[in-house]
Every structure is written in structure tokens, then in C-alpha cells.
Amino acid sequence: MDLSLAAPVARADRRPLVVAALRDAPLSVDECLAAVALPEAGGTALFIGTVRDHDGGKSVVELEYSAHPSAEQTMAAVAREVADGLVPETAAWAGSPAQPHRHEGAHAHGAAPLGLLAVAVHHRTGLLTIGDIAVVAAASAAHRAEAFVACRQLIDQIKTRVPIWKRQMFADGTSEWVGAC
């Protein structure tokens, strides 16, 4: 079942492209990158979230992601907010630039913030095993700093605001549900 909203939003108004897709099949990193590949991009940031083999000192054997029927629309709305610069910058994180470069005309309400050109996020549902890709987020911008900031905001907002839940199955036969993403 492909619930994809993966067709990019037109850039007639010069707003950044937004792609959001919820899928029950393996995710393609190349597809997510292609969605943000634009000739004017000088930098592209990519995040790939994979299923790890442990959590909280317990051995994880697989995960199951479930999504509310509104999850894909919510994910698209969150991606649009990030693309339009409506998400406040979060506290500095290790290795990040203190402040992204600001360019002339870069941040008016509803306009592309900081030279951002496109964002894309694909999230998986269903049963995943160790090493499977659970989420792919990408952002392209005129400069790398803007792409890094947008990619970080995108994944952080998806994890906290989109109604996607995961059930972790452990090697000892127990399982637990973990809140939104």
C-alpha cells in the first residue's frame, strides 16, 4: 500500500519544494535525494534513520511502525512548515554552525528561509528488521548550512509531531510501544 504524496509541490511561487511519503515498502535513499536535487542547490543534507539492534540495554530484534490515517498529511504539513521557515531554530547541536548564512531576501514569512530550495521525507510503516531504513529526510539549499539546519528541523519535527508509533520487539520475547516516532 503506497500512500505517497511524493509529487513535488510546484515552485511557481518560488517556495521550496516539499515531498512527503508514508510507505509500507522499503525506502529508497536515491528517490528521496532525487526529490531535492535542483540545479541551483549548492548543498544537500541527508538523514537516514535505521533500525538498531538495542534500546535501553535490551536486544531489539525488529520494529513495527504504525501510523494514524492523518500521518501522511501531518508529515506533509510539518515539512511545509520547515520549508517555509515557520519552525524556530533549535538550540545548537554538536558540530553545527552557530548561525546559518543569511542571504539577501532570505527569510520573509512564507518565503524560502535561508536559501532553502527543497525538503523531502519518506517514512516507513510495517515490520522492519535490524538495519532496515525507517526514515529518510533530505534538504537542499543554496549553501550547506541551510541544508543541515532544515534537515535537522525536519527530522526533529517529524519525530515529535507526526502520529507514527513503533513497537519494539526484544530478544527476550517482550515488546513495548514507543510514542510518536
Automatic annotation (TrEMBL):
Which branch of life, at top level? Bacteria
Instruction: Please give a single GO biological process term from the UniProt record.
Output: Mo-molybdopterin cofactor biosynthetic process
Instruction: Please name the CDD domains in this protein's record.
Output: MoaE
Q: Which InterPro entries match?
A: MoaE_sf, Mopterin_biosynth_MoaE
Listed PANTHER family: MOLYBDOPTERIN SYNTHASE RELATED
Q: What is this protein called?
A: Molybdopterin biosynthesis MoaE protein
User: Source species, please?
Assistant: Pseudofrankia inefficax (strain DSM 45817 / CECT 9037 / DDB 130130 / EuI1c)
User: What does UniProt list as this organism's lineage?
Assistant: Bacteria, Bacillati, Actinomycetota, Actinomycetes, Frankiales
